[in-house]
Each structure stands twice: as C-alpha cells, then as structure tokens.
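Question: I have long wanted to understand how a fold can be written as tokens. Here is the record:
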Amino acid sequence: MHKGRLEAFSDGVIAIIITIMVLELKVPHDVEFRALLPLWPVFGSYVLSFVYVGIYWSNHHHLFQAVQHVKGGVLWANLHLLFWLSLFPFVTGWMGENHFAPVTVALYGGVLIMAAVAYYILVRALLACHDAGSPLAKAIGTDFKGRVSVVFYAVGIALAAWLPWAAVALFAAVAAMWLVPDRRIERQMET
C-alpha cells in the first residue's frame, strides 16, 4: 500500500486534536489582564500539550520520509498512536482545570507514556515492512531518546502523587529534549 493516505489521515486527525485543545480555552468575561491570571493552569497545560502534539506530528512526518510502503499492521499501529494522541485534549483540560492536581498529572503522564509506547509499536511495524538494509532500518538505530522518554514518564507518574509540579517539569523536560526533530532520518535520507 502507498503511504500517502495514512499520512494525510494522520495529519487531519492531529489538526483536529489541536483544534479541540484550543477550543477548551475559555475566554474571560472581564477585559482586564488580571482576568487571565486564573486561566494560567489551563493555558500552561495547553502549551505543554500543543508542544507534545507538534513533536509527534514532526517526528511522524520525519519517520514517513524514510518509508516506502505500508501494510495493514502499520495502519493499525498508526491508529493506535492516534488513539492515544486523541486523549490529549481530555487529559490536558482535566489537568489544567484542576490546577495540576496529583491524579490529573499522573493520568496525563499515563497518556504520554502510552503515546510513546504506541509510537514505538508503529516504528516496529514499519521496520517489519522493510528489509534490514532499508534507509528506515538504518536511520532508526537504538532510539536512545525514545527509551529515556519512557523512563522519565514513568518517574513522573510516580512523582505526581507527592510532587505534581516536579512531574510536570519532568514531562516538560522530555518535551524540550524532543523539540529538535529526530535528525537520524534526515541524515540517512541525505546519503
């Protein structure tokens, strides 16, 4: 199968996810800047989630640059990833509305870790469609950042019960680590 429809569908779903997240931001009825202060937790959680969705979109795009074709298993693995990404608006809104309460931060971390696992599964499904000498296989390598991310998410989930702000800071640190798109694929495609 050609990869184009999968990429177009994924782009559309991700655009809808971002739209739903921004629609959760409620406009204050007061015109003073102080009216924005109570909204900072909601806006802060939105910014973090927007960055995460952007990171997934960017890396998904880079990943599919090295893909020649897809099979049915890849379609399901991609849907699995999109499922977890589609939960971002819910956990983002819940965490922000409840001022980063421990349970909400832990659930946010749970969705982050499941999205990371789903991305890993998608990569493995793609690798199964390509031979070991393909540009994709050469580019993937050991995926150090992906493995470290899962560890940080797990630590953040555990930390959320006692120090939810520290957990959010850890989640933000992982996002910062991923702000630069994965260059392995770009380097491989240039050769």
User: Anything to note?
Assistant: Residues 4-190 form one domain.
